[in-house]
């Protein structure tokens, strides 16, 4: 007997709420424990020392899994829509999915290899996560425009593109300012060497991260129209 799930909007909704909670909970614990300054630390700074490191690693890994599931469902949704109105090449859809999954892999690296323990691996993971994420949401914005007006409204497409542009703009100075920081530490105080670079880079990092969250929030309406059919038939030999 097949089991039918009427709409999968709960997937991006869970991704958005879980990821927001991961950032906020680890930040609050790190600040209360005195491990970071309250004024705009790096996201990774809030998950470096125990006890917040365990919570951060666990929740970000779950976020990476939820993001991968969301991206795969989005891929299937576009493939299904393409059957009746061909608006994007399947190869382009698959390429976009692969870019997104690269970003999820980067998130897993960030969660597993903490900032002070293995800084080089952590930084590579962060670069892959943010870089691939920015490319993914930009490609999804372009695909959304191609699907108008049948599958998306121009209003939603404009919102997605605005989020993508803001994230792209923030991503570049995030990398530039981070490259000018000459030391790896989490206990920053105003006025010390490289603090301004750290502060500006951290602002851009939070901007990009929440840009991803708001972008996936726009998927909820699309996913309400999409159902997954799971076969639970048992065949006897």
TrEMBL record:
Family stated for the protein in its record: Belongs to the DRAM/TMEM150 family.
Topology term for the membrane: Multi-pass membrane protein
Domain named CWH43-like N-terminal: residues: 8-225
Record localization: Endomembrane system
Subcellular location, principal: membrane
GO biological process: regulation of autophagy
Protein name (Swiss-Prot/TrEMBL): DRAM1 protein
Domain of life: Eukaryota
Pfam families for the chain: Frag1 (PF10277)
Keywords: Membrane, Transmembrane, Transmembrane helix
Record organism: Sylvia borin
Entry GO terms, CC: endomembrane system; lysosome
């Amino acid at each position: 007997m097949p089991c039918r799930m009427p709409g999968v909007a709960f997937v991006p909704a869970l991704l958005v709420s879980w990821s927001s909670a991961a950032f906020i909970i680890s930040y609050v614990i790190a600040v209360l424990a005195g491990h970071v300054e309250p004024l705009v630390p790096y996201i990774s700074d809030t998950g470096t020392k125990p006890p917040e490191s365990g919570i951060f690693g666990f929740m970000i890994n779950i976020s990476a899994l939820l993001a991968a599931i969301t991206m795969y469902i989005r891929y299937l949704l576009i493939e299904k829509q393409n059957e009746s109105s061909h608006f994007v090449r399947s190869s382009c859809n698959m390429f976009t999915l692969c870019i997104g999954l690269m970003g999820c892999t980067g998130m897993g690296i960030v969660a597993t290899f903490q900032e002070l323990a293995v800084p080089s691996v952590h930084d590579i993971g962060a670069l892959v996560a943010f870089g691939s994420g920015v490319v993914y949401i930009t490609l999804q914005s372009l695909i959304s425009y191609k699907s108008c007006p049948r599958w998306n409204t121009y209003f939603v497409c404009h919102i997605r593109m605005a989020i993508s542009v803001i994230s792209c703009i923030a991503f570049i100075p995030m990398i530039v300012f981070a490259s000018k920081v000459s030391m790896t530490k989490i206990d920053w105080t105003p006025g010390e060497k490289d603090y301004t670079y750290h502060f500006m880079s951290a602002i851009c990092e939070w901007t990009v991260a929440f840009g991803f969250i708001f972008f996936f929030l726009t998927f909820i309406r699309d996913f309400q129209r999409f159902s997954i059919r799971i076969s639970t038939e048992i065949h006897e030999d």
